[in-house]
Amino acid sequence: MALNKTDRQITTITSSTAEITIVTAGGTNDKRHVYSLRITNSSASDAVVTIRDQTGGSAVDYVGVKAGTTAGWVLPSSDAIRQTNKNNNWTAQSSASVASLYVVAQFVEETVF
Predict the structure, then answer these.
(1) The domain that contains 82 carries what CATH number?
(2) Each residue's pLDDT tens digit, 57-111
(3) pTM, full prediction
(4) Number of domains in the chain
(5) How many CB atoms lie within 10 A of CB 6?
(6) Of 64, 65, 44, 52, which is closest to residue 18 (Cα–Cα)?
(7) Are the C-beta atoms of residues 8 and 85 closer than 8 Å to each other?
(8) Residue 81 DSSP one-character state
(9) How far from the centroid of its chain's Cα atoms is residue 79's Cα?
(10) What is the per-residue pLDDT for 71?
(11) CB within 8 Å of 22: residues ≥ 6 apart
(12) Residue 46's domain spans which residues?
């Protein structure tokens, strides 16, 4: 196992309940393990955001974000939520179509041979 780098991606989800990519897939032999997730809800409505480690996969977390607030978590990068399969994206899906959800995900990349 080689932990290569850390990085972050910022995504805005606007008026949607569709599953949206928040961390793009790494290379063929890479897994991206998320260690920090912050979601800001700019709307007047609450939302629950489902986090998955691949499109259409099982939920790995649910983050409740009240209207006008920020929610999420930060872990040491060594304790990140580990991605199940190589070369997959991470997604977020809101329970409600709210004005905007701003998602910041930080990850550490692992190359697996």
Answers:
(1) 2.60.120.340
(2) 999 999 999 999 999 999 999 999 999 999 999 999 999 999 999 999 999 999 9
(3) 0.94
(4) 1
(5) 15
(6) 52
(7) no
(8) B
(9) 15
(10) 98
(11) 9, 11, 51, 89, 90, 91, 92, 103, 105
(12) 2-111
